[in-house]
Amino acid sequence: MSETHTTTDVTALVAAIGRAAREASRVIARAPTAAKNRALEVAAEALVDREKSILAANARDVKEARRGREGGGRKDGADDAFIDRLALTAKAVEEMAEGLRQIARLPDPVGEVTDLRYRPTGIQVGRMRVPLGVVGIIYESRPDVTADAGGLCLKSGNAAILRGGSEALHSNAAIAACLHAGLKAAGLPETAVQFVGTPDRAAVGELIAAEKYVDVIVPRGGKGLVARISQEARVPVIKHLDGVCHVYVDEGADPAKALAIVENAKTQRYGTCNTMETLLVAEAAAPAVLPAIGRMFAAKGVEMRACPAAKAVLAGAGLADVKDATEDDWRAEYLAPIVAIAVVRGIDEAIAHIAAYGSQHTDAIVTPDWGRAQRFLREVDSASVMVNASTRFADGFEYGLGAEIGISTNKLHARGPVGLEGLTSQKWIVLGDGHVRG
Fold first, then answer.
1. How many helices (H) and strands (E) does the chain have?
2. For residue 39, which of 166, 171, 156, 120 has the smallest C-alpha distance?
3. Is the separation of the CB atoms in 65 and 74 below 8 Å?
4. CA distance 221 to 229
5. What is the rounded CA–CA span in Å between residue 381 and residue 355?
6. CATH code of 99's domain
7. How far from 371 is each of 246, 249, 367, 378, CA to CA, in Å?
8. Domain membership flag for residue 81
9. Are 214 and 254 contained in the same domain?
10. Domain range for residue 339?
């Protein structure tokens, strides 16, 4: 279903897609690893072979986004950052293809049996990893999500329903067609990966309420999209709303190490969810580490918003162009060259600050003290907690997952980067030989 739909009956459309996905999910769940890998490899070849048509479809989307589409929600056109997320290049198409090849090379989690052990009654009890079923992915702007999400769902034995943004309609359809080519070549149902081809936003509401057909929803996009889905969905959601990530520089931290970690965490990329937004510095460490960090931020054009104590230390180092931090700054996900800085009394206050203002995404400590590092690891309630490392490592590829469908701050099921294993669940299995319970 990669064609662009024009039907106004969105309810019927989503129901039809859902029924087909549910049926396909039973087939893809039992598909051999070799068949799934074959589908991924052929889809990767199709992406490369169809590069020109994919880029032509993307050029059409970009052109329409630039001028704005009446009724598409962007009447005044789109800004440069939005266009950057939407636009594809030949290199991007090859990277999508390589991403599918990498997924094909990953171990298949489906059917893995763990913790098998004998019970006193003589039965064996263990757990088997199984697909979730039908995964709905709702995303904005980035057409590469079509390939990544479709590929990950396919390898993990799930059927996927992809609903990309209306601004990437033609790009997403062209990429989804490559996934269908792979499924067909492997003898698997093309409905295992379906693209919702209508620009009607009502389709999102229908999809997140389709409890009969969809087992989980994964939103990929801005805070507004994720908030709406989290609030309105009747289907379980794997999501994170904000990436308010912290680095805490503890007393006794090596100044050079602290500078390197803070610089990477904030300035390697500004617009990612694992970028540091708030820097916390122990008051005992501030005179030794904060001036060099402040000079680095100033040299890179990063706007600093600091508490009075941090502002005083920075001013003493000749850094006068520092703004006063407000209460809102401690909760801000800037996704921009802006950083909030606070001096805290020590690790207790740092952990309390993170608990009060953080988003349970990723937080890091820079410390030479292993005891305080262990406290930070235990007490900071975030999906990823790091010691002496940049928050930018919170990524599926860096964690050895090969790829990720998103980052989850949920506490149930998947947490942190969600890869193949996060798209599966476990069921109990019992092996006996005529055993009955006495």
1. 14, 16
2. 156
3. yes
4. 11
5. 7
6. 3.40.605.10
7. 19, 15, 10, 11
8. yes
9. no
10. 245-398
Is residue 290 over pLDDT 60? yes
Other C-beta atoms within 10 Å of 381: how many?
A: 14
Q: Which of 338, 383, 398, 380 is nearest to 240 (CA)?
A: 383
Same domain, 39 and 163: yes
8 pLDDT tier (thresholds 50, 70, 90): low
Predicted pLDDT of residue 178:
98
Residues 93 and 233 in one domain: yes
> Which ranges of 380-422 would DSSP assign to H, the alpha helix?
none
Tokens for 244, please give them: 């308010």
| Residue pair 325/334 in contact by the 8 Å Cβ criterion | no
pLDDT in tens, 138-174: 998 889 999 999 999 999 999 999 999 999 999 999 9
Q: What is the pLDDT of residues 205-262, one digit of tens each?
A: 999 999 999 999 999 888 888 999 999 999 999 988 889 999 999 999 999 999 999 9
419 contacts: CB under 8 Å, gap ≥ 6: 152, 396, 399, 401, 402, 403, 404, 405
Q: Are residues 88 and 171 in the same domain?
A: yes
Summarised one tens digit per residue, pLDDT across range 51-64 is 999 999 999 999 99
Specify burial of residue 43 (Cβ count, 10 A radius: 0-12, 13-18, 19+). buried
Structure token digits, residue 129: 């990893």
What pLDDT sits at residue 1?
A: 44
The Cα 237–Cα 30 span in angstroms is: 24
The pair of structure tokens assigned to 154 is 């396919």
Q: Is residue 189 part of a domain?
A: yes
| pLDDT value of position 84 | 83
Of 201, 202, 203, nearest to 73 (Cα)? 201
Contact 279/292 with Cβ under 8 angstroms? Answer: no
Report the Cα 59 to chain-centroid distance in Å.
Answer: 26
Among candidate residues 401, 42, 417, the one with its CA nearest the CA of residue 240: 417
pLDDT value of position 75: 40
Rounded mean pLDDT, 377-389: 98
Q: Which of 76, 233, 222, 51 minimizes the C-alpha distance to 142? A: 222
The pLDDT tens digits for 254-286 are 999 999 999 999 999 998 899 999 999 999 999
Structure token pair of residue 295: 């000079």
